[in-house]
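Checked the freezer inventory, then went back to the computational side. Two predictions to log before the end of the day. The first one is the construct we discussed on Monday; recording sequence and tokens without edits.
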Amino acid sequence: MTTSFDPTILPDLPQSQRLAALVTDLWADPNVVALWLGGSLARGEGDRYSDVDLHVALRLEAYDPDSIPESAGRLAAAAVVRLRFSFVAGTTLWHMLLEDGEIYDLSVQSADQEPAYEARLVLACRDEAFGAKLIGGEDRSVDFPPAVPREIARVIEFCWINQQKHQKVLYRGLPLLAWQGEFLMRQDLIRLWYVLATGQDCGLLHRLTIHTLTPVIRTVQAHFGSDTLQLVGRPMRTESEIIETGADVRDEVARVGRLLAEKLGFDYPAAAEATIRRTWQDFLSEHPIDHV
């Protein structure tokens, strides 16, 4: 158990100067039971742009879900944005943007609550029983489940159905709505790429964040190269660009979808693809758009 705070334990990063002062203030508060870091700083993967995930456990009688501890006053004073979240009872997350651009996730909890299961770098702890709870944490927040064949087949089927809806909104003079639909299809394509590369499904998470998406994007880039950005990063500023890009995305969904059907063992929705390709040809012949 670490009963005193040693600033040299902090990573050698610009964020540590403010962090050391903040932890010193907090540790001087007798209501603070334990302090620890989570996130990339705890995993040893932080860089100068990493958020600071600082956890504070307070004595039960001192925990107030609606306020930041007074001993974190210098942090609160530096915040230009403070967003409060409560994902579980007895814990409050303060998501803060500071005046110098740093981002803090200050998680304040009652010491009678279990700490979040993640990689942890313990900074100080006064209570042996609570300190035992901080031992052995590891990062499981980006462990994606194995892809379920029927679920992936549904993603591909929805891609084809949504493509049909784009004809409707373009006909009604709503290209911005078609843009939104094409954007969502690109997200589905990234999901399908990831499943093809790993056999795991990143699309079932309820909270997609920069942390959870980082390994997805790294994997997709490593397996499929710069062509991924060339496709999903193409502009959709006009109806012509929406249609041209949509056709290329459809081709890639078809290619990846057939590979996934073979890999995971489901029936590829070939009839849906054929229907959409035929109806798009009909739509464009009846409603020509310049420069297509």
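The second is the one RB wanted added to the comparison set:
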Amino acid sequence: MPARPRSGYRWAMDETALEDELSRPTPALTEAFRHLEGDLVILGAGGKMGPTLVRLAARASIEAGTWRRITAVARFSDPRAFDLVEAAGARAIRADLLDPGAVPSLPDAPNVVFMAGQKFGTQADPSHTWAVNTLVPGLVAHRYRAARIVAFSTGNVYPLWPVASAGPTEDDPVGPVGEYAQSALGRERLFAHAAAHYGTRVALIRLNYAVEPRYGVLRDIADRVRTRQPIDLAMGWVNLIWQRDASAIALRALAHAAAPPLVLTVTGRPASRVRDLAWAFGRRFDVEPIFAGTESDTALLSDSARSEALFGPNPVSQDEMIERVARWVEAGGRSLGKPTHFDARDGRF
């Protein structure tokens, strides 16, 4: 029988309660929003993180006692995401940002969070990935050149790094592997171009890996352990951060956007060993994990010391993340069905 969720984990199997937890403002975010002036536009708000980030921004504004218009823009192919955004009190706009007329018609705002991007499907259609990850940022950077822009990027812009170290910092050379990572670096370059030519204030968020019970590296590992699927150890170490913590950092970064851009690696540290994560779930599920391959001496790692110095340590620890994901899985909680492919070492997605 699945273990009964303890008090504090009452959202197991209850997605409304889970989304409430993922969008609960931290005290630091609420304080930051007391001093943030103006409306907010969130682009690419229909993805895995978008709806809860929109609600987080709306709730932080209310708790801070500051009124602002929040507009969330996406194709909203999932109608549920559209409904979640509107229920948060934000205005939801359906738009394809690749449409030449879409970006110029968007509302003005002094604050922009850019979340649009393409990763999976790159191998099958690389031209579309490049269009989403470089053409769209160029259009947005020009349209909102007078605004503060926080743009989500990825830790994939870094090369594979020796596991004996803490991982690369923002001052280390980038070295993207594969076309997705290369196009993500292209996205960063387009926003940096706006900062150089227009003085646009930008913060680039190199994120990996955000997790919550319905998707992410921990959900991938938990599912493989429970269903007795082999876990490839070639990418033997990963960095993890709770999704709410990552969203809160991104919103707080609006106040720190600068020209040249502020570059922030956003994740948890130290890196977690995939083998140890699998065994943690194995003990919870009373299942012995199955492993394949051997650990390499390099992995996709990131050192988030700069972010931690600016915003403090992440509130949710690795052990808490494992506990929350394990309880959700034990209770039969839904998966988004979007594997991260964290074990891919060749950059092909």
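For RB: The first strand starts at residue 40 and ends at 43. Confidence is low (pLDDT under 50) at residues 1-8. Let me know if you want it refolded.
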